Amino acid sequence: MDLSFLFFVSSGLFLGWSLGANDAANIFGTAVGSRMLRFSTAALLCSVFVVLGAVVDGAGAARTLGSLGAVNEIAGAFATALAAALAVFLLVRAGMTASTTQAIVGAIVGWNCFTGAYTDADTLLTILATWVFCPVLAALLAMTLSKAVEWSLRRLRPHLLTQDALTRLALILTGAFGAYTLGANNISNVMGVFTTVSPLQDIAVAGWRFSATQQLFLLGALAIAVGVYTYSSRVMQTVGNRLLQVSPVSAWVAVISHSLVLFLFSSRSLERQLIDWELPPIPLVPVSSTQAIVGAMVGIGLLKGGHAVNWRLIGRIGCGWVATPLVAATICVFCLFVLQELLHLSVARQQQFVVSPPVMQRLRAEGLDADTLGILDGRRYDSAQALIASAERREPLEKAERQALLHFSYRSDYQLDADAVDDSWFSTGQRQALSALAGERFEYRWQIRDALASLSEDWRPREDREVPANRLFNRELQQKFDYLYRILER
């Protein structure tokens, strides 16, 4: 492994350590706080299952986070991860609870602002919505489960020793499940920005393919495990004791509620099952473990009248949630400035938007106004912000028009290299089309899309969008194209 890459990825490992110290502890915090589990036992279980979740099922949320901003240089990825890690570390040291999810989102937006890259508003709004929905959903689940468990205990009336043994077992099993879902959902926070700039190659181990992305996720998960062992004990006590004094049964309710929320936002199997049942799918986005456990604890406290909840601590936690993305974005901009202006490192590939005649034709087909196109005809722009500003001199563009303009006019050098693509995500028809175009070069992203669509219907969007399965297919197809654009850009 390249030593320079290890240096740059160290910021991601630092972020993983921060997640282990702050977020991963939430899984067993209530169990340790209620003295049902020793810290050493909780740390071991948490570490093992975080690694499994990250390696086996960590790709879903990572793809959504990658759509927010495509960090395309290793130095830029280093600065982004370092900013998120420093924001979490500094806020925790200041006595505030920080979220790695909010930190990495803020850092990516900071990178977008510094480099002039376009921030996908839909993806950002989806992630922001989960910051509200996640703790509320955890609170509702905790309240529902608390009522169900209370009713069951009244009916069954188990012996106190039996109830204690079952509760301890339930905390262990639920904690393992929670650690797995944490790894699956939050590993994208740690290593997501490195997936497109990593020099790692896929390797085969005993007939099993170990992808470059999985290798990155394994490194990040091990860093999380180190964070759990070295710095999470105090955070466990904070969540388990200072926020709300809970019984062992309530501790289990909080953990299972937290774990279910993380599972809902990271399970690709559940997403497909909801589509099969013609139900709206839950977006696969990284959500905050801290928000989930705090929401669950508050839900339990509200059932008891709300008097036992430490509302002053809740206020401090809320301030931390608001401050985290802002602090991370600010630190990221500062780090990028130092790397680029003082150390003369490239933090982003040079962007180029060229409205050539073929692009003009595609934009007209998309319905853009002729006057707007006349202003842009034949011109080149060095950033997405400059292109949008020029296009909106006469009147503002609709969101769809801005996205179309940026998509069709972005020019770079793309070469289809089948070996560079993790094709486990693609169908047989999609893999065959990629192989048929191996070695081909393109200037525009839409040329890749057209070439693949001409070879296989699996690369064509489905027209009847009223069918839920078609909407899911089209959304996944767009994510696959976004992935190809990032991987194949030279």
Automatic annotation (TrEMBL):
UniProt cross-references to Pfam families, sorted A to Z: PHO4
Any one of the GO BP annotations: phosphate ion transmembrane transport
Domain of life of the source: Bacteria
Cellular compartment(s): Membrane
Assigned keywords, A-Z: Membrane, Phosphate transport, Transmembrane, Transmembrane helix, Transport
UniProt main location, coarse: membrane
Membrane topology: Multi-pass membrane protein
Residues that span the membrane, as ranges: 36-56, 68-92, 124-145, 166-188, 208-231, 243-265, 317-339
GO cellular component: membrane
Any one GO molecular-function label of the UniProt entry: phosphate transmembrane transporter activity
InterPro entries tied to this protein: Phos_transporter
Family: Belongs to the inorganic phosphate transporter (PiT) (TC 2.A.20) family.
Protein name as annotated: Phosphate transporter
Organism of origin: Marinobacterium nitratireducens
